[in-house]
Specification:
Length: 358
């Protein structure tokens, strides 16, 4: 572990990954000195030396070492995916050491597993807040705003268009998720559906955007935020991408085989190049939301945001800063971002604009 003039009060795990490094750099710009942690000792040490903050190398497969790394920290911002594999050991360490748990997942099963530990987290006096990045801060806030505008909503549709391309970690997580198929919420229950189960169009500045359903985290979290029983999430995609997604439904049984999954993840990692700062600056995101009441009344909202990776850095650090101030935290246990930060939280972040208010 490197030395620091002041013991760090929080930790970024996976700080040497693409998104983790962006967050660490933004944290340093704001004057924070988090402990930087991960499995790759050399990469973590190099980043720590550049940002002049403490580092530690530890593996998620070693609970004692992980607990030792978390000990003394008020919170952990977990950035090492796929979170379906990495979330549980980090959450266990946070529960054991009494540290708030944050991550940047978009995986439905991870949200569900974290939610199941809510009572235990509350007993420990900590908050468990997964999904504090682009997954799912802006869409969660849109859902909360729509619920406030239409309290008796019975269905909720969220959609987004994201440009700029994925990081290697995001792409590998997406590949791993294929075996689980699509998800929607019906009658309050998350159900499995085929990939690209439905398509529809959304209008953006007078132009139609074709979109397909995807198993985005809001299928789980938006219900916790709003109580709305029927939820679908769409992603803008070309007709050829939708056709390819539907063909993948035939491969889903094979994706459940670990050998096939690992092969495809390796192929994906080799072919993906994470977006450069210049590409991120040129590629923002757009979000649509539509709530509907039983009698057909609707409330809609649209939001424009910076690139998802840049938003993840600012959104996650805003949550960190809130939790580091106990006077601003009135609830413990599992919380969605808007439950902790308020329905308008996304609108406080740089570059986020509500283009159509509910």
């Amino acid at each position: 572990m490197s030395d620091s003039s002041k013991a760090p009060t929080w930790m970024i795990y996976g700080a040497n990954g693409y998104t983790g490094a962006l967050i660490a750099q933004e944290a340093a710009r704001r004057g924070h000195k988090p402990k930087l942690a991960g499995r790759n000792a050399a990469a973590i040490a190099t980043l720590g030396a550049r940002l002049q903050t403490a580092t530690t190398a530890c593996d998620l497969d070693h609970p004692a070492a992980l607990r030792a790394a978390v000990a003394g920290c008020k919170l952990v911002l977990h950035c090492a995916g796929p979170f379906s594999e990495t979330s549980r050991p980090m959450l266990e360490a946070c529960l054991a050491e009494g540290a708030h748990y944050l991550d940047i997942t978009g995986e439905i099963d991870v949200f569900s597993a974290c939610h199941a530990r809510s009572a235990e987290a509350a007993q420990r006096g900590i908050c468990v807040v997964p999904g504090v990045g682009f997954d799912v801060v802006p869409t969660d806030c849109v859902a909360a705003l729509l619920k406030a505008a239409l309290p008796d909503a019975v269905s909720l549709v969220l959609a987004f268009e994201a440009a700029g391309g994925p990081s290697v970690g995001t792409a590998k997580t997406s590949v791993a998720g294929i075996a689980k198929g699509g998800r929607v919420r019906k009658g309050g229950t998350v159900i499995q559906v085929p990939l690209a189960f439905k398509t529809r169009t959304f209008m953006r500045q007078g132009k139609a955007r074709l979109a397909m359903t995807i198993p985005w985290g809001d299928v789980f979290t938006a219900h916790i935020t709003t109580g709305v029983p029927d939820i679908e999430v769409y992603m803008a995609a070309s007709a050829s991408t939708i056709a390819s997604a539907r063909k993948l439904n035939w491969l889903r049984p094979l994706m459940g085989l670990s050998m096939v999954g690992r092969f495809l993840e390796r192929r994906t990692a080799a072919s993906v190049k994470a977006p450069s700062p210049e590409k991120r600056a040129r590629s923002g995101c757009y979000i649509w939301g539509e709530a509907t009441a039983a009698d057909g009344r609707k409330a809609t909202a649209e939001m424009e945001t910076p690139n998802g990776y840049d938003l993840t850095a600012t959104a996650s650090l805003g949550v960190v800063e809130r939790l580091l101030n106990p006077a601003l935290v009135s609830r413990q246990g599992y919380l969605t971002p808007s439950q902790l930060m308020g329905a308008s939280y996304a609108l406080t972040l740089p570059g986020v604009v509500l283009t159509t208010a509910p």
